[in-house]
Each structure stands twice: as C-alpha cells, then as structure tokens.
Amino acid sequence: MLDGAFSPNQRLDQARRLGDEIERPDDITLGQDGALYVSTGNRILRCTGDDFNTRTAFATLDGPVGGLGCTPDGRMLACVSGLGLVALSPTGEIIGKLESVGGEKIACPLSVTVAPDGAIYLTDGSRNNRPELWLTDLMQNRAPSGRLIVCNSSLGGASVRADKLAWPLGVVVSGDGKEVWVAESWAHRLTAFSRAGDDRRVIVKNHTGYPARLARGANGEIWMAFLALRTQLTEFVLRERAFCEEMMRTVPPELWIGPALDGRLNPREPTQIGRIKKLGIQKPWAPPRSYGLVARLDARGAATETLHSRVDGRVHGITAVRPIGSHVLAVSKGRDCLVELPPGRGMQEG
C-alpha cells in the first residue's frame, strides 16, 4: 500500500534528464577526479562536462558490470557478474580482484561500499543465479542464499559477515559509521548489521516495493532506490509453485507475471497485470508492471519523502540513486537514462 511518506506523486517524472541515453545503466558513483562513473553492460563510462554528457569508456570488463564504488586513493571498485569484485586503477587497468570467500566463488556481486576506515563491504546476491537473472531468482522463490562480505582496502582478508540474505542489492555504511545497512530485495526489508559485533536488526520490513541500492547523504540520511513495486498478483504467483514453474518453463521471461524494469506496452504481456486504459490513455493508478520510486530516509531508516514515476510515467526501473554535492542523481535502467531529481524538502537548488 502506498500511503504516508510513500503516497503516490509524479515528482520523479519531473526529474531532469542529463545528456543522451545510456543503454541499461545499472549504478553510478563519483570518482576522486570529480567525474561520474556509470556501469552499463560490460563497460564503465566516465562522464564529465555539463550534464555529464561528455562520455568516454573508462574500462571494458569480461562480464556485465553492476555495483560501483570508489576508494579514497582513487581506485574504482566494480562488481562484475561471474568474476566477483574488481579494483581498477585511475586509468582503468585491473589492479586487484576478490573472486571467492570461504572457498565459494562470488558469482553474483551486486553492490559495494567503502567504510570511512577503508574496509570494503560487498554483497553477493545468490548462489544460484547471476545478477542478470534477477527475475529468475525472484520467481524461483528459493531459500535465500545471498551474503554480506567484508574485506580490507587491498581486497584481502575477506570473510562472510552475514549469510542467507534475500538478494541483497543495496549496501551502505550508516551515517554514524557503526552499522552496515543492507537492502534485501526479495524480503522487502532494510537490515542493519553492527560493524563491531554480530548484532543485527531489522530497520524496516514489508516495504511496498523491491528495495535496491543505497547511498549515504548529508546528516546521516540514506537514499534508497526501488526496482519496482510489489503487486498482489505477483505475490500470488510466487505462492502457486506449480503454476509459476510451468510459466517459467513455457513462457519467455519478458512475458512472465512479475515485476519489470521497463513496462512499455507489449501486446503479448500479461493483461492480468492491469494496464487499465481509457480513450487510449494508460491510467496512473493501474496495477504496475514497472514503476519508478526513490525514497529519502532519515538516520533511523524512516522515509521522509519519496519520488514516484507511476504506471503512466517515463522514469521506471531505478537501480541506483546518489547524492552529488547539492544534487541527487539516479539511473533509470528501465528507460536508459541518467536523471537529476527535482529539489525537495531540505534539498538545495543550484
């Protein structure tokens, strides 16, 4: 249910598009050189200039690139499907790798963050599927097998901090530096892990959507992206295992009854999802196949404001959001764009 701080609006559709399209952007981070780095396919783009529209290839890797991070000494950290965590020099050469931990390969790296003391936290989404098979992982509805991994600044001394996580797509160190917050997409919750011990606590459970990447803002705030909204129909299909498994065997994945990053109309997609139209106009309140949602959280994890792109909107499938100075940027993987969010409460223009 969308109410309270999550009440629907159209503010995400008011976001300003920055530059030309970027094909399927997945994450963004600010480098020590002041450039914006964007993961797209097997590449990382370096973006500079007005609206970050001067774009050059920073690195091309041997698998799809997802989560990005940057160390204080200027190294770029990249989550590479099937390969683990890769460290890149300021000129784009591979200078380090973290490929396994505890004897198990890191095949599904999703997100990475660097703590103030230099420790690196990495999430491994699943032991069963790679990042590009996120929808398959959701619909299989297996026991959670994701991990939170910690290593030192040289990618050494890696250990598993937490196991059995449900597709941990987002990770960030809290504003006070004492906890690591993890967004578990398939469990619809935000969980905090103590950096000093084994304590964990659930910050928010039963989110209305599938939480994605996290980024730290000013004054202890956290920004959180959402892949899509949950629907009653998808929840029903996930419970009806015989139907769901037959659907996965016999129907192309883009036509499964489930969330999508890009809900532009396909005449063959499942009509049960909703798609309520009248006089050729798609209604914003129709049950969503895809959706755009970003939330701003206070230091306790409570939402203070949200920005929506509803069913009829044009900024769907938000996989990452990141404050850059007085601005907040996000990537719409569903609509191939980099956007700047409109100013809101406590956000300065300029």
Automatic annotation (TrEMBL):
Database matches in InterPro entries: 6-blade_b-propeller_TolB-like, SGL
Domain annotation SMP-30/Gluconolactonase/LRE-like region: ranges: 51-226
UniProt xrefs under SUPFAM superfamilies: Calcium-dependent phosphotriesterase
Domain of life according to the entry: Bacteria
Gene Ontology MF, one: hydrolase activity
Protein name according to UniProt: SMP-30/Gluconolactonase/LRE-like region domain-containing protein
UniProt organism field: Bradyrhizobium elkanii
